[in-house]
Amino acid sequence: MENTALIIIDLQNDYFGSIKDAKWPLYKTEEAAENTLKILTKAREKNLKIVHVRHEFQGDNPPFFAPNTKGSTIHESLTPKENESQVLKNGVNAFLNTDLKAILDESNITNVIIVGAMSYMCIDAVTRAASDYGYNCFLAHDACATSNIEFNGVKVEAKLAHATIMAALSFAYANVQTSEEILKQI
């Protein structure tokens, strides 16, 4: 894929159950990180544009991703290299009030590969926004993690929440594939 960027969303320590004192462990974060690393490694080999997005909550007593904490740090397995772009966001959508679009446009990016967390929040938001901006979106569903959710007394298991979002995004916003399928295209 020419003119392609890999966008890694919020794979930070607070989401990893394997990290001591993680504030918000997700379902299958470690598996998502392993698959992300495979894609990241190939993207580095092919000299693709790589953008690491990191979330920090503002205000007092954030639930997780507090500024200047171990929990808000990108997981060590995915540590950005010097030549890779980094974006700090304070909200759900990685394009909102950040320079993500400018970074992509400066490199004439037309295709984005999206991975990270949480499926039903930041992954959903960035995928829809990227599609609305005209980028061709490729989403590695097995390189994304999420959590259980509840609405109006209805509890939804993480795997069902994840599947629902992936199905919705595949309908009109992204080419949703496995990591292996995406690796073959890079």
Walk me through the topology.
Blueprint: E1 4-9, H1 29-45, E2 49-55, E3 85-89, H2 100-106, E4 111-117, H3 119-132, E5 136-145, E6 149-151, E7 154-156, H4 158-172, E8 175-177, H5 179-185
Parallel strand pairs: 1-2, 1-4, 2-3, 4-5, 5-8
Antiparallel strand pairs: 6-7
Helix pairs in contact: 3-4
Please characterize this protein's 3D structure.
- The protein has 186 residues and is an alpha/beta fold.
- It has one domain: 3-Layer(aba) Sandwich (Rossmann fold), CATH 3.40.50.
- Helices cover 32% and strands 24% of the residues.
- It has 5 helices and 8 strands; from the N terminus they run βαββαβαβββαβα.
- The protein has helices at 29-45, 100-106, 119-132, 158-172, 179-185; strands spanning 4-9, 49-55, 85-89, 111-117, 136-145, 149-151, 154-156, 175-177.
- A 6-stranded parallel sheet has the order 3-2-1-4-5-8, with helices on both faces.
- Helix 3 runs parallel beside helix 4 (158-172).
- The longest helix is centred in the N-terminal third of the chain and has 17 residues, at 29-45.
- The protein is globular.
- The mean pLDDT is 97.
The gist of it:
The protein is of the alpha/beta class. The protein has helices at 29-45, 100-106, 119-132, 158-172, 179-185; strands at 4-9, 49-55, 85-89, 111-117, 136-145, 149-151, 154-156, 175-177.
